[in-house]
Amino acid sequence: MAALILGCAVLAGITRLAAADLEEVLAAKLLRVGLTARDVPPLVQTGTNSAPSGLEGDFIAEVARRMDVKLAFVRTARTPAELIAQVASSQVDISIGQLTDSLEWAKSVRFSRPYIQLQEVCLAERLAATRAGGVIQLLADKTSRVTSVAGSVVLPAVQEEFGDRLSV
User: Fold this and answer.
1) Three-class SS of residue 87?
2) Collapsed DSSP state (helix, strand, coil) of residue 57
3) How far apart, in whole angstroms, are the C-alpha atoms of residue 142 and residue 4?
4) Contacts (Cβ under 8 Å, ≥6 apart) of 51
5) Within its chain, how far is the Cα of 52 from the centroid?
6) CB–CB of 69/27 below 8 Å?
7) What torsion, rounded to 10 degrees, do the Cα atoms 48, 54, 60, 66 define?
């Protein structure tokens, strides 16, 4: 499995912002930020005023403060792929969150530098992996089940990769 890269805002998220787009944001005094609908503490969690807080929420609030623009959070995406689609279709200016910089996604959005890289950990039953010819083959087997820890920061990426094969 690939490394999960957590990205944020102008420094490390995904963006459609080019110079002209940035001028539009500054003129409108509004930065539209895509986030997943669910909280992922300590990265993003709903604060006491209903605005996202946590490492990424606080960071993007500081970016907006320095740009002298208001923030509009769009928290309708269920998956990182939906965040990418929101940026690509200009529903939001940038997205922050659990994002991987895949080649497929890079065809439609620009990624900035990541500020955190997490490596996904995979534990496999030795006998099942041996029978399948190795862990890679076991995971590629579309009939094998995958389990993840509920509330894990990597859960959305694992859900997207394994779909209905996933048990939480």
Assistant:
1) helix
2) helix
3) 22
4) 57, 61, 71, 73
5) 15
6) no
7) 80
**pTM for this predicted structure:** 0.65
3-class secondary-structure state, position 92? coil
Q: Does residue 115 contact residue 11 with C-beta atoms inside 8 Å?
A: yes
DSSP string, 69-105: -EEEEEEEESSHHHHHHHHHTTSSSEE-EEE---HHH
Look at residues 40, 116, 108, 107 and name the one whose alpha carbon lies nearest to residue 75.
40
Average pLDDT, the chain: 78
Question: Tokens for 66?
Answer: 């320095």
The values of phi and psi at residue 80, to 5°, are -60, -35
Best CA proximity match to 33, nearest among 71, 62, 6: 71
Please give the DSSP secondary-structure letter assigned to residue 81. H
Kindly list the strands in the beta sheet with 97-99, ordered across the sheet, starting from the edge strand earlier in the chain.
Answer: 97-99, 4-7, 116-118
- pLDDT of 22 reads 83
- pLDDT of 63 strictly over 60: yes
